[in-house]
Write a structure and sequence with these properties.
The chain is built from 25 helices and 29 strands. It has about 1000 residues and is of the alpha+beta class. The strands form 6 sheets. The chain has a 6-stranded antiparallel sheet. A 6-stranded antiparallel sheet has the order 14-13-12-17-16-15. The chain is flat and about 160 Å long.
Length: about 1000
Amino acid sequence: MEPNSDFTENQLLLSSAQLQEQLDQQKALASVIVRIRESLDLETIFQITVTQVRQLLNADRVAVFQFDQEKDWEGEFVSEDVALGWDSALAIKVYDHCFGEQFASSYQQGRVQAVADIYKAGLSDCHVAFLSKFQVQANLVVPLSRQEELWGLLCIHQCSEARNWKESEIEFIRQIADHLVVAIQQAKHLHEVQLQAVKLAQAAQRDQVIAQIVDKIRSPLDIETIFKTTTQEIRQLLQTDRVAIFSFNPDWSGNFVAESFAEGWTPLVGVQPAIADTYLQETQGGRYVNNQTFTANDIYQAGLTDCHITLLEQFQAKAFASAPILQGDQLWGIIAAYQNASPRQWQSYEVESLTKIGTQIGVALRHYKLLAHAQYQAEQQKTLTCVITRIRESLDLDTIFQTTVTEARKMLQADRVAVFRFDPQKDWEGEFISEDVVPECNSVIAEKVYDYCFGENFAPLYAQGRVNAIADIYQGKFPGCYVQILEKFQVRANMIAPLLKKGELWGLLCIHQCTAPRHWQPSEIEFTSQIAEQLGVALKQDSYLKQVQMQVVQLAEATEREKAMERQELLAATIDKIRQSLDIKTIFRTTTQAVRELLEVERVAIYRFNSDWSGKFVADSFKDGWKPVTQAQPMIIETFEDTDDDNELPRNETFVPIREGEKLWGLLVAYQNSQPRYWKEEEINLLAQVGVQLGIAIQQAELLEQTKRQTSELTQALHELKQTQTRLIQGEKMAGLGQLLAGVAHEINNPISFIFGNLIHLNEYTQELLKVVKLYRQNSSILPTVQEQIDKTDLDFLIEDLPKTLESMKVGTERICEIVLSLRNFSRTDEAELKPVDIHEGLDSTLLILGHRLKNNNERPAIEIVKDYGTLSLLQCYPAQLNQVFMNLLSNSIDALEEKFKTIQQRYLMLSQRCPRIPLTIWIITQAVNNQIVIRIADNGLGIPEDVRSHMFDPFFTTKAPGKGTGLGLSISHQIIVEKHHGQIKCSSKPGEGTEFLIEIPSGN
């Protein structure tokens, strides 16, 4: 009974596990169904599904794969849940070329693929390789089909091992897939609803935008702003590459007058020449005249003519939609939308939007035309009023004529408006005396004209005040001579109004159109006639004015002659004072005082500009009770003018420029501080002449100062040139000495090297020979003659002394090598550039070269050298030049010590006393302090007096006897340390105790 009992218990346990598994599956399925009902977000549904399915089935990866409908069985994983340790397949582009051949039809029929082991399931090699890419060993794939269309796959992957899929698992996944398909279908319906909502919103937005555009078109803007706003708004509304407005010419050619285009396309406005569409020219507007639109979704498929396609290719268009712009009943132009990047299917609402906008533009053009006509009439009256006002305000006929022709040409938009005056001494001959002309036409000013046809045809009519308007000189029956004269001035259409003075024909007011014929409007003829009448009034006023002016001039000339003589005398006296001195301060003081007395003003000041046009007063002369302005802070004069109009008004000051050559140097200013003053023209002229003389005086003073400065600079340059020449000579000497030392060292080095090298072998050979001799002497059978010779030569002494001799030769050779090395280190002929060196080597080489001077001789004992070398890093320097400094300083110390010994010895000789021992010592100390290499060279000589020490670094300064020193050693040393090495060299000395030179060189030089 126990086996049966165990079997029953196992069955119960198995049944319980199955029930639990089914229960879990149903829970997961219910969760997915609830999520689908709760959420419309497909990504959220997918993510929750793959997570719960993977946890329930304990799989390594559960993923949703979606096919790209536009590509052949290619797609990507859009959602997944993957166990730790396995790669993610999310967003990887997948193309399995085996899929379409083996599985596509099965999946489309709803079949499920369950593979327990991909390597044992008989799959094709390409499919196995594809699954291995995702680490798959067993997989379960269920299709996701939407309305008989394979949307994607629900994939369950076991990556760690093979797996036998249970029927319950397959059925569970199939149910999950069915509900996912429902979710996908819901998402599709939601997307369609959203698209419809977007379309409705876009339609409402289009209507709103069109309403806004219409409002802007109807607002009181100029027509160019309307065009610009319309094209921009329509292009944004239709999302097209270009929207342009095309305007027809009278011959049905035309030009683009406004456009808005996307970046990267060529503009058409102002670039393309007049566009001639032969169809529109032949049909005089074609379908557009009948208010019809024209669209082409693809210009190459729309059946257009070759010439039409060529024209559209110039516009870079591949598709277009156009609508007419009618100004009343007349076709004015076209508004067109162009798609340049690709063909486009134009929608009816898009064409309708273009038509609405075209209609509104036509209304705006009609309103604009009416408004322009009203404005034109108002401008005519305004111009006429301006001319009348100018005639009343001004008595200058030239100013009246110039104002009139300028205003009239602007008003009439003509190419030329000119005033012609007849010469009263000649028969209908005259010249143009005033004009305003466009740049494209020639000027006719001062052109002499004689029209022999004039008297016969036009003179009587003009004398009666008739205006002659000609629309085209080639269309009327005019005499050839008259046409030739008009052609000379490029005239194609003209309008002539007579200018009458006291009932006589004085001249003509001529309006010329040069570029094309022109039909003169009645309002334009009336306007010209009124202008001519007002000019006649101005001529009459001018006649009266000239009579009065003639009388005034005659009276003023006499008075002016007297005043001019007085001013010239005063001016000459002032200029003479200016020229009596070259000192600029004296000139300023004299000038301001003289001008103040001359003009009887309260202050005269001189103001000088700085380079930034600020400035200050540099001199002034003022009456008692006023404060000086020369002590004021610098100021900036924002603007200043000196015009005739200003002189007619009372002011507190007047000023004139002071020029130094062509440069504005400053201002000469006269002040009347107590009250405004009417400055007379002669006072300003006098002030201006003084300003000119001041400019000349300043220029002369500046030239004098410049000459002094150049003389000083030349003197300094000559002094520096002499110093440089001497330093170059000294440098050449040192260079020559360095070359000589290097050459001597080289010549000595070769034989010494030979001797030193052979001494080693000679020592070895000698030891071998001595060993042989020793062995030979130990042999008792030495020949008597040999023994005799040994006794005679004292062989024992030779054996003892020969090694000592060889050792002495080795020591001497090594000493010579050291001397040669020191010579080479001192000269350093191959080290003219900066390089890191050991300072101590340079000091030791210099001491070795000076060794003969340090030893005792007949005149003095030896000089002791005390070296206290610190631990120094290599110094970046010019080695040869630094060695030259050491040589100069050490040589001077030796000279000082020799002078000390000689002085003390002479003192004791004079006293007839025995001279005690005199210590002669030189200390050399090196150390590194605060990134500085410090070198001290001191001696216990007699010291240097203060008056000598203050000049010791000056070139050519020396205290030595003639012939013993050039005075350049310390000067050159100072230049090497300070200029070449950016260091310092100092000297400290106490008379009777000694001297110390301190050298500091930056260690990072």
